[in-house]
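Z., the sequence and structure:
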Amino acid sequence: MILDQIEPPCIAVPVPGPGRLMASRRIEGGAAAKPRVLLVFRSRYPESVEMLNGIARHLQTHDAWSVYVDDEARAEVDLQWLFSQDWSGVISRHTTPALVQACAERGIPLVDLNDTPQFAGVPKIRPDNPAIGAMGAAHLLDRGFRHFGFCGLRSTGWARERRTGFVDTVQRRGYACDVFEPDDAPASTPFDHVRQVEQIAAWLRRLPMPVAIMACHDPRANQVLEAARSTGRLIPEEIAVLGANNEAARCELASPPLSSVATHPLLSGLRAAERLAALMAGGDRSVDSVRIAPLKVVARRSTDVLAIPDRHVADAVRYIREHACENLTVDQVLPHAAVSRSQLEKKFRAYLGRSPQAEIRRVQVTRIRQLLAETNLPLKRIAELSGFDYMEYMCVVFRRLTGGTPGDYRRRTQPSARAIPPATGR
């Protein structure tokens, strides 16, 4: 689609649908041409749509660009999409060496959103994959499992990073993790899928039960669920399964519905737009790689279990998770555990590696994080909803357990172009 056929005077008219022109080059009165940006995405992927929403969020509060959405990523294989226009900048989810070279030769700023090794001279925005794996491990550890596995993709960089984050977190808690990577690539045919599910099922039969499995992404996790069902194992009582990326439709259609680590593609898109805007304005030309932290684990039935063999501890944990945000004390937990406080302390440390009081604080901080990320409630109200009498004490506890302030966490997880300062590379 050619953009330069619109002559002044004219006004910007958004056009819905794929491959849409979002602004004209000129406005009435002969104003200077707006930056013209090519977005290379495949919009059939939910993650890509969220990234585009993040870019749109940036445009809502800044000067408009003239934007063309190459929503079939044709520029990945056909550089005529790049040569056909005088582009001011490019944001690409499907960046190739040829695209990088063509942009460099023409002096076109390029920001890469592909989760692959970084190209020389090209800023990159990508998920914090080790943190995704670590968050998944923490979720399964909190459910009391002692046996763990990771099912991934052997030759894929982002999958290996997620595996590393998961395995390291599990091992720091004193447990081993069995890693299985059946094939280098996702199943491309029904026959590939069946073969991989059979390979995973054979692996699951060798593992001690109960076991908690994290997969590198939701499609692989669905294969683990299918393999677990084929072995006759109970899900999640014998095999708990966790995915990553939180593709909502895929997770809800799974049997049982799949828990998943939610990444933050909307914030990735926003950061990419901010970075491109700075490049097009002649600002900082440093080449950086920004990692976007995961949002949270979206818990569904595939991990809805407490794998704690001691009934007293399991009952106490269940009560804490239901009532921790009601200003709960350890003494109030004791009647539901039916043991003395000293026994409960000893059992908690044996099975969970922390005290009952620490478990109460962990549940409270999880609630605080949710409210900071999903609402605009003031801190005083968040303190009330998470079981703290004083906002100041809530902030002290939050900082002690997370290493940052509630305000810092809200700025990181709520992608408001005005509220969030520019990101720093890692």
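Residues 321 and 363 are 6 Å apart (CA to CA). Residues 311-413 form a domain with the Arc Repressor Mutant, subunit A fold (CATH 1.10.10.60).

Let me know what you think.
H.
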